[in-house]
């Protein structure tokens, strides 16, 4: 499964991984009140299962290469955003020299 993702031959500088306990994600999804039909406990748990089976192996692959930057996503949104900025901003500075800006 992981090889399917990696056949693009694109090597990321880093991979962001928003680390949050399933219980917390479940609580947040169920309380977001967006009226989505798929915001129910059964569908949410299926999404978690799909993530564990298909996406987590990709994260683990890049983690073995030292490219994963983990962010504690159980914290408040503002703190998570500050963590993302601290990781992305230095990379953004590198890219500016090439005429591309990430944000």
What's the structural blueprint in terms of helices and strands?
Elements: H1 2-6, E1 15-19, H2 22-31, H3 41-64, E2 68-72, H4 77-96
Parallel strand pairs: 1-2
Helix pairs in contact: 2-3
EC number: 2.7.4.3
Protein name: adenylate kinase
Keywords: Kinase, Nucleotide-binding, Transferase
Distance between the termini: 32 Å
In the predicted model, the low-confidence regions spanning at least 5 consecutive residues are 98-103
Work out the strand percent. Answer: 5-15%
Give me the number of helical elements: 4
Describe, in plain words, how this protein is organized in 3D.
- With 103 residues, the chain is mostly helical.
- It has a single domain (15-96), classed as 3-Layer(aba) Sandwich (Rossmann fold).
- Helix content is 57%, strand content 10%.
- The protein is built from 4 helices and 2 strands.
- The chain has helices at 2-6, 22-31, 41-64, 77-96, and strands at residues 15-19, 68-72.
- Strands 1-2 form a two-stranded parallel sheet.
- The longest helix is centred in the middle third of the chain and has 24 residues, at 41-64.
- The protein starts with a helix and ends in a 7-residue tail after the last helix.
- Residues 98-103 have low confidence and may be disordered.
